[in-house]
Specification:
Layout lengths: L7 H13 L2 H8 L3 H15 L4 E3 L4 E3 L1 H27 L4 E6 L1 H8 L3 H7 L4 E6 L13 E6 L6 E5 L3 E6 L2 H6 L11 E4 L11 H7 L11 E2 L2 H9 L4 E5 H9 L9 E5 L2 E7 L6 H16 L1 H5 L2 E4 L13
Parallel strand pairs: 3-4, 3-5, 8-9, 8-10, 11-13
Antiparallel strand pairs: 1-2, 5-12, 6-12, 7-10, 7-11
Helix pairs in contact: 1-2, 1-3, 1-4, 2-3, 5-10
Length: 321
Amino acid sequence: MPGRMPPLTALRAFDAAARHLSFARAAEELHVTPAALSFQIKSLEAHLGRPLFRRLNRAVELTEAGRTLAPGAADGFQTLAAAWRAVTRMQDETGLAVTAGPAFTAKWLAPRLFHFARAHPEIELRFSASLRVMDFDRDEIDVAIRFGYGPDPGLYSLKLAEEWVTPVMVPELAARYPTPESLLEAPLLTDQSLDFLDPPCDWPAWFRAMGLAADPPAGPRFSQADHAIDAAMTGVGVALGRRALVIKDLSEGRLVAPYGIALGTKAHFRFLCQSGADTRPQIAAFRDWILEEIEKTVAVSDAMTIVPAEDVPPPAPSAGS
């Protein structure tokens, strides 16, 4: 019958042989004998009515028909394998694979994970500290925590907290620079990972929010937020710290935010998973734990005066413009 699909086992044999261009290696991958694999491919060619491989002395190569079929067969089996992995993960109530940015992993997750592990010893955690865009099925990821504006179409997306930035430093530096004006003389650390924010939440914007039009002095620049915060922790300078990444250090006194004024941004951390997966026990437990941990430090945020970044006056025109 025209258009009738051939047996799946024959297509699987063809896919392996087309990738390896070797019946022997394809047979080894599929754990069958070369004779059995050759039989499957011959049956597929008989089903099609034309050859898919050109048999050479010590190798094989694809015919025009084989080259036409190979990409679709490969895509089909990759899609099927991904779907199978996804459906088997749905039955797993103990494994939890999480991806988050390096800074959030180092400054938020890692210092708190002991509490989650103690409360949920049955859950086996696996972390990937990366900003790479990941596919939940292909990369076998259950939860992603990402910072930005969204939206996140087709996903379960939960905003974790309002986000802001404020100058943070060790107490000794706070005594040396008691006012925003005096901060203009301080060594200022720049977190370049904030450069994508619009409106900006950088040092010039923070000083303008304080009514100070002077350009702040240029200081060391860091591509990673946690590196800027670590530098501030050593006392070498003042960092413009993001709420989620400094709030634990603020609540425990290792850093201070002496001016009590922060720039608010509409960018925020989001808890992401596949739509419907939020009800899986380990994902729900992880989400609820994160929300509980955020609640523990809410007093720090409540004590801060937030100036929305969109309300900050723009830079003054330069002379001669």
